[in-house]
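Reviewers of the previous submission asked for a worked example of the structure-prediction workflow described in the proposal, so we include one complete record here. The input consisted solely of the amino acid sequence. No template or homolog information was supplied to the procedure at any stage.
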Amino acid sequence: MPDERWRKKAEILHVEETHQGIWLADGRVQGVPRFVYDEETVERMRLGYMCVNCQEPFEHAWPERCHVCGCAVASKQAEFFAQEYGGEVDLSPKTPVFDGGIHERAAQAKENGHA
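From that input alone, the workflow returned the following structure tokens.
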């Protein structure tokens, strides 16, 4: 059986809502999310082994066009990747996690003047 690791799907770690959208002719608005990928997926896109538009994996790098969405991979993907890829994203919680029980939280709230 031939090696088919190239078929591995994109690993999406997080989807962020954006304030961008596409307004359709019938009045509906289709949102444009921002995807956060794992390092391997980003590298496959950078090297031309995955479509940056629809995340379709390719057996061979830099096909003329994506066979799923028709995106011009060979001529446009490197430029699009350079413009759109923003680097690493920190997915850790923005607020500290408090491990104490109810009594510890009540004492801390009292200390902070919230009780």
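Residues 73-84 form the longest helix (12 residues). We consider this example representative of the routine output the project will generate in years two and three.
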